[in-house]
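Title: Prediction job returns without error message
Component: structure pipeline
Severity: low
Priority: P3
Assignee: unassigned

Description:
Job completed but the reporter wants confirmation the result is attached to the right record. Sequence as submitted:
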Amino acid sequence: MNDKIKILLIDDDYALRTACAAFLSDAGYLVHSGKNPQEGLKLMRDTGFDIAITDYRMPGMNGIEFMRELQKSSPQTDVIMITGYGTIEHAVEAMRLGAYDYLQKPFEPGQLLETVNKLVTHRRQLGKSGDSEFRFQFEDETVSIIAKSRVMQDVFRLVEKVAPTDSTVLILGESGTGKESIARALHALSLRKNQPFLVMDCGSLVESLFESELFGHVKGSFTGAVATKHGAFELADGGTFFFDEIGNISLNIQAKILRAIQEKEIRRIGSTETIHVDVRVIAATNLDLVKAVEQGDFREDLYYRLSVIPVHLPSLRERREDIPLLLHYFVQKNNLRRQKKPIQSIDDDALSALLKYDWPGNIRELQNVVERAAIIEDTSTIRLSSLPPSLHQTTDDPRQPTLLSMVELEKQHIARTLQHTHRNISQAAKLLGIDRKTLYDKIRRYHLD
């Protein structure tokens, strides 16, 4: 049960740290420990953890400061605070900032284990697990992609398999589904991870500038070319080049990109010299390239060259089971800005609107909606009034909204799905992105049977 749960334990007391680490390890958890927050943050960047247990008083950085730094890079990591000296004000502050619980010294190892076990149960009820957070290091920053749906888990597994190769990858999906994040993951998990990662937004430049930006030019090759310029493709040599929205480029530029990929060489504008480049190409688009090929707007040979490995990213409305988890993630991130009054719940009217909405802007839109609510909302609860008008649902129900925890959020979502499928377990499990056994477990846990 605990073999996927990774725990980070930070305490400058060697005896306490060693005893607690051994006790938790014996209980089946994967435990890494460090003697100070700086060591803990490095371990977090290198490894990633589900739970962090930290003392409050330590040299250099106290537990609250460590917790804030942790929340910036890993909002999915839950924190248990250890306090001493007979005071609870530090514990209260930690809880206000989002810590799950606290322990006062002295305590028995069994008390720590009981608290950790309760937290693990809480995480599973929320759908949080090691599998629901796809983590990688990109340019010294920890990046998380949050999803528990089966379709996104399949994407994660495909990325892990494809990343170490040099195959070209075509990422397909609507705007806001996270195509650039997947491209960054492919680079970060590849053998080129320490080499450049360059991005070209194919919709942001006019064609007359696009070729120069991509391949460079020599001095005097056109009006305004006052010096020789290295192109982005050349600068990416040894690394990865990401064409974002590649469906927007002209047929003329498409031909030159195809040559660069196939021959591994380019020419600057105005030059006869060929330059060898070793670049892995990843491309993304929200357009139907097959249709574009049929209409003569995209080269068929380039399409097949790019789509050696196609990766399809589903829209958010196709994986609604991820919405509660994403809500929790974005709320935690925005709570860093609301330290005096963090968001602690979502009322039922707001939750209903968030779950029913079709999210044409996908994850990017959801992130913006939560950020807007965190700025506008004066209370510790996200209400319908703090959501954009486009999400408001008319209702004749005169009841006052009740407050829902994230656990209740999942319970209601499962109940609605079962009702929608007329309690067809196989169909409901497929819609929720979980297997039948997991769904049966949740039905029993939430007394939905």
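Comment from assignee: result matches the submitted record. The chain has 18 helices and 19 strands.
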